[in-house]
Specification:
Length: 249
């Protein structure tokens, strides 16, 4: 991704889970209204940060009116001098506010591990630094997915993304260590996210209704966290196997 300036986003975001058939029909009927962005299908890799006791994701799963999270994002598997983005995402009363600061992978590592700022100063970087000093978060989950991104034709407002093959891991928490992980969703399912600053276009609202594609609450990091918690609980509650008795009667 070539964006090199600090960025601020403010918009409403809704997520939808689609089957393969629903996705194909959606793309067929929406083709006159949307077009793929110049980057086509691409892989997005993220490192999510949290406190030692997972305060941020646990709070988020309680669905409060305000929540926030931090992640480091790359487009593809980065090298030392490739551009990555440190992102601070806040949600208040359904509106998402996202700030992101570009830096090289090396600069990001120096800042996260040693507190050395990248070679530029900005209000957004100061916000990131306040978050880091307040929560003292650590890398907790690596998460990636393959994404198609679209925007409305003649419309600089509507943005639509479709993610597939969502995968995560809790080891190898570095963006440069490949894009393999445990899959979050079974079967061929797609996660669509629609991002607008106001109401949906009429054609989009009608199409979603006709195809029975309904909004859901879905957090990639949250779903992976809950799955890991369930697996940990099941393992803890497994009965201890007794050794086979080979005693003589």
């Amino acid at each position: 991704m070539p964006l090199k300036a600090n960025q601020i986003f403010q918009r409403m975001e809704k997520k939808y889970l689609m089957s393969r058939e629903q996705r194909e029909l959606f793309m067929q009927y929406s083709s006159g209204y949307i077009e793929m962005d110049p980057y086509g299908l691409h892989t997005i890799c993220n490192i999510y940060f949290d406190t030692e006791d997972d305060t941020l994701i646990r709070t988020s799963l309680e669905k409060p009116p305000y929540k926030e999270k931090m992640r480091l994002r790359s487009y593809g598997i980065p090298r030392e001098e490739d551009l990555v983005f440190l992102e601070l995402k806040k949600k208040w009363d359904g509106i998402v506010y996202k700030r992101r600061v570009p830096m090289t992978l090396k600069e990001a590592r120096d800042y996260i591990e040693q507190g050395i700022w990248p070679d530029h100063d900005s209000q957004m970087m100061r916000e990131m630094d306040y978050f880091m000093k307040f929560y003292r978060p650590k890398p907790k989950v690596w998460l990636a997915y393959d994404r198609e991104a679209y925007f409305g034709k003649g419309d600089g407002v509507l943005r639509l993304t479709i993610d597939r093959d969502i995968r995560a891991r809790t080891k190898g928490l570095k963006l440069e260590l490949g894009d393999g992980g445990e899959r979050l969703m079974e079967g061929e399912m797609y996660l669509m996210e629609i991002k607008v600053v106001a109401a949906y276009p009429l054609w989009l609202a009608r199409l979603l209704g006709e195809l029975r594609i309904y909004p859901i609450s879905f957090s990639k990091y949250g779903n992976y966290y809950m799955a890991a918690q369930r697996a940990r609980l099941q393992k803890k509650n497994q009965p201890v196997s007794q050794p086979e008795c080979r005693c003589m009667p």
